[in-house]
Amino acid sequence: MTRIKEIKSEEQNQRALARIEELMDKEVLSQSEERELSQLASLVETFEEQEYPIDPPDPIAAIRFRMEQQGLKQKDLVPFLGDKSKVSRVLSGELGLSKAMIRKLHDGLNIPLQHLLGETRPLNSIRNKDTDTSIDWIRFPIKDMIKREWLPAHMRRVTSDGSALQKELRKLLPDIEAIIRNPAYLRKGEGKNMQTDPFALIAYQARAAQLARQTKIVGKFSFDAISTGFRSDLAKTSYFDKGPLLAHEFLAKNGIRLIFLPHLPKTYLDGMAFMLSPKEPVIVMSLRYDRLDNFWFVLFHELAHVALHLREHPEKPFVDDVQAAANSDAEREADRWALQSFFSDEVWSSCKLSIHSTVAEVRDFARINRISPAIPAGRLRRESGNYRAFTSLIGQGKVQTLLLDGSRH
What we know:
Elements: H1 10-24, H2 31-51, H3 59-70, H4 78-81, H5 84-91, H6 99-109, H7 113-117, H8 142-147, H9 162-172, H10 176-181, E1 185-187, H11 198-214, H12 228-236, H13 243-253, E2 257-260, E3 271-277, E4 280-285, H14 292-310, E5 318-320, H15 329-342, H16 345-350, H17 359-369, H18 374-384, H19 400-403
Parallel strand pairs: 1-5, 2-4
Antiparallel strand pairs: 3-4, 3-5
Helix pairs in contact: 1-2, 14-15, 14-18
């Protein structure tokens, strides 16, 4: 058999995966076959990183996702990983997967080989500098979290005790370890004054997941339901004074949780999209810019991630600062999808609106299309870079008072 030395097409990628599976089925590998398996895994990983804008999950994230999908508990992994101790060590990242474990997980749980063969993502930015094997738990913004009432006041007594913090945070925010193991796809701004605090970001995600689990909705979700008509119906809720509340109800009736959670310091985020389970999408909005134009764009941008990206990669959350430049194909695609949900490119180009248009002209366009005037006004401001225009149309100060009840989510 001719060895695969490079992968430049999906056909070659599939051949490589088939050969990997063939090698994995062998009880014993020669040194030559061990080298071939390692080389193929590296080639597949490199090809998929270049070919697809969204990273695959690391092995632990892939296992955890399958557990949640099938309702499995740690004890259910014993037949695949050996014993309870090994299960715990694998899921904590302490123990790597052996070839036998990979084969059993692939055969028994149908987890793709390329996910199991990948490397567990490094957590260097959140490691303890003194012990590279554990998370530096004392760097979480405990005081801010207590102030927001995310954590009980007694946590102040353990802010400098990493071991105690780890125990308490795992208990109070049970999603935190999975979030650490499977970092979100992050769209963020650049500059020394906008350095994201990874611990604050993880804390925010964990709190959002907690609120999502506490939020009960009756609607059943289907990816296929997010049609052109669905987008149009949702966009038309913007036409009403209480449009954001109507949008919240509309999404809930269609099985989509919409959570409003003010951001933590040094997170610089507008929105987030993730799957609570394979059939439970969640959109989170920080509302840090209290304007209607920002609300509607962020909402549809995150909905785009649900419709376009989380269907294929449900294990990969998106966290967005939409003020930042789109830094990937996925982000550019979500931006386009959001804009086209309000009106088509043809409608926009033919309407002849510009930054020099009058307020009345922008209002007329919005009325004809049954949307909030904040939407075309916000688009004109962004595309021209003139943020002093149409200030009377963007709905400044009309979002938080409508959606935040004064509680410290």
